[in-house]
Automatic annotation (TrEMBL):
It is a multi-pass membrane protein. This is Glycosyltransferase RgtA/B/C/D-like domain-containing protein. Keywords: Endoplasmic reticulum, Glycosyltransferase, GPI-anchor biosynthesis, Membrane, Transferase, Transmembrane, Transmembrane helix. InterPro entries: PIG-V/Gpi18. It comes from Streptomyces gilvifuscus. It is found in: Endoplasmic reticulum membrane. Pathway: Glycolipid biosynthesis; glycosylphosphatidylinositol-anchor biosynthesis. PANTHER family: GPI MANNOSYLTRANSFERASE 2 (PTHR12468:SF2). The chain crosses the membrane at residues 77-97, 109-128, 148-178, 190-208, 251-272, 279-297, 303-319, 331-352.
């Protein structure tokens, strides 16, 4: 709420409406267009460039369409309702995972740190990250508790939310494989059912796009390549970083580089912390997609927003600090809040850079 209030103040000073910025910025317009009219729109800003709405997964626009059907709201307002509801569900799921592993204090600290990430303003916008994070958190919680069917169903839904939603299916499959190995194949049919369900959402949409484009296996990836997005093992990102270091660029890009580097460091800390394998697999796939993908370098921190397990070592450290030196913990949280609120308002109101 405080972050949204800070953004509203900055937006008002700049002569913009806060709700319009939150509900209709960048990718939000594509999602709302799909919700209102279905798929089939292609933007051709210049010769040889074609941006198709098939690059956007269907769960979020489907939820927006459902809200507008039931409640008399505009599509922008409905998008915000979906995002805010999903963000609340995600916070509950993140708390549940943290509390299950390390107690309620760490669960609370984990939610706090996730809500104060530099790009957490996206959680208040008509974007898909809150939906993916909510599904991922509860799927991982189900895996940790051995509820395999629930884990598979939620992973399948996560695969319909975003391209990197496949990370949830990867976590479920890795956990299931380890359980089969540990029990030498003597596992419940529920595990096999959950493992079979987990990748269905992501793979079904990719194959549907392929069929629609006439290229069953590569059609979706061709759509993404036309947007400038491809997985090249980080080559495009490294070339961009080289140009950034040699020539400098806007403030958003150095900040992006810093956040992605922090994500790599936090993953190393998560490994050293001996986190459960499903959390490592989930975070590792999200990090691999963000680092290894080319195109839209400034969006990489947003792609890492659902990777909340990366924050577990920091949450544990914050709890220890709060118990030993409460004032130090208060200063740290205050500094993170100031960075999050200020940078979020800058991104949405001032930067004019794709989120």
């Amino acid at each position: 709420m405080l972050g949204a209030a800070a953004l509203a103040l900055v937006a008002r000073a700049a002569g913009h409406g806060a709700l319009a910025l939150l509900g209709r910025s960048w990718d939000s317009r594509w999602y709302l267009g799909i919700a209102a009219h279905g798929y089939g729109h292609t933007l051709r800003p210049r010769p040889g460039v074609a941006y198709s709405d098939l690059a956007f997964f269907p769960l979020y626009p489907g939820l927006v369409r459902a809200v507008t059907t039931v409640v008399p709201l505009g599509d922008g307002a409905a998008g915000l309702v979906v995002s805010w509801t999903a963000a609340a569900a995600a916070a509950c799921g993140i708390y549940a995972v943290g509390a299950r592993l390390h107690g309620r204090a760490v669960g609370t600290a984990l939610v706090l740190l996730w809500g104060l990430l530099p790009h957490s303003v996206v959680l208040s916008m008509a974007y898909t990250e809150p939906v993916l994070t909510a599904l991922a958190a509860w799927s991982l919680y189900a895996v940790l508790g051995g509820r395999w069917v629930w884990a598979g169903v939620l992973a399948a839904l996560a695969g319909l939310a975003r391209p990197n939603g496949c990370a949830v299916a990867a976590a479920v499959l890795v956990a299931a494989a380890c359980e089969v190995w540990r029990r030498r194949g003597k596992v419940s049919h529920r595990l096999w059912t959950g493992a079979a369900l987990a990748p269905l959402g992501w793979s079904a949409y990719v194959l549907w796009v392929g069929r629609r484009t006439g290229n069953p296996l590569d059609g979706y990836f061709e759509v993404q390549r036309r947007w400038g997005s491809r997985f090249d093992f980080g080559r495009g990102a490294l070339l961009f970083v080289r140009r950034l270091l040699l020539h400098g660029d806007r403030f958003v890009f150095p900040m992006t580089l810093l956040i992605v580097a922090a994500g790599v460091l936090l993953f190393a800390l998560l490994l050293a912390d001996r986190a459960p394998l499903p959390l490592i697999a989930y975070s590792g796939v999200l990090l691999l997609i963000a680092v290894g993908g080319s195109g839209f370098f400034e969006s990489k921190p947003r792609f890492l927003l659902p990777a909340f397990p990366l924050l577990i070592p920091l949450a544990r450290a914050l709890v220890r600090t709060a118990r030993a030196r409460p004032w130090h913990a208060t200063v740290v949280v205050g500094a993170l809040a100031g960075l999050s609120f200020g940078y979020g308002a800058y991104l949405v109101v001032i930067a004019h850079t794709p989120l």
